[in-house]
User: Fold this.
Amino acid sequence: MTIEKKSLISTLNTTKKAIVASTPAVSTSEARSSARANTRAARANTRANTRAARANTRANTRANTRANTRANTRANTRANVNVQ
Assistant:
């Protein structure tokens, strides 16, 4: 191995050690607590999105039903008027 490669490898190893040393240690209980909080937040977001989707679906269904009913009623009324 050349001296340049050895120097680069040494620099990388030193950098890795510095990063590991500067990273704060997180206890297992803290990690679990954080994971639980993230899971709860994700579930809450999912619930909110589901509720919003249901509300939108209901509103759209009602609007479409009303519009279709009105259109069909008008069409039938006109058809009946033309028959007489």
